[in-house]
Amino acid sequence: MNPDAGPPTPRAPPPRQGPPGRPPRLFIAVWPTPTALDGLRRWSAAWTWPPGSTRVPASRLHLTLHYIGDLPWARLPEVADGLAVPFRRFELTLGRAQRWPGGLAVAVPHGSPAGLTDLHAALAAALARLGLPVAPRPFRPHVTLARGATAAVPPACDAAIRWVVGGYSLVSSDRGYHPVRRYRCTPTPRG
Fold first, then answer.
1. All domains of the chain in start order, with CATH
2. DSSP strand pairing (54-55 vs 143-147)
């Protein structure tokens, strides 16, 4: 398994089709490499978490590129094919602590690399071509570390967690995270 291309594969694959009338709930995200995941775990452990806060399990730490929401089962193959966009491997550095409204404790990148904003924009264009909604609000890349963490205290110093992104995934979030399709970066020409 390649963690930067998607969430852990469940022991038993999810059913191809869910209960009648219940469409899959989908999002597009990148998952940290093992090195970045280790850095996120260590940095998260350095926070002071108040009682009642719920830390996100390491297997669910990711950076969402786009939330799609519910999609009819019949459209899933078309959408999965339509979300294949070319992109080059890029690196981001995470580790700026922020507390957002609603009790979210997040790690945000030190700057937003062109590779990340380009991938986000290419996927937004693909979603629009597929007739799917694209959130009108500005892209705020982050990894959610905990919920219910309004009083969480981050470490005194920011971290510098290096994350090389070489893939992204279309994921179903019904009863856990299940990869629907994984996409790899465009190979760099040799020469």
1. 25-184 (3.90.1140.10)
2. antiparallel
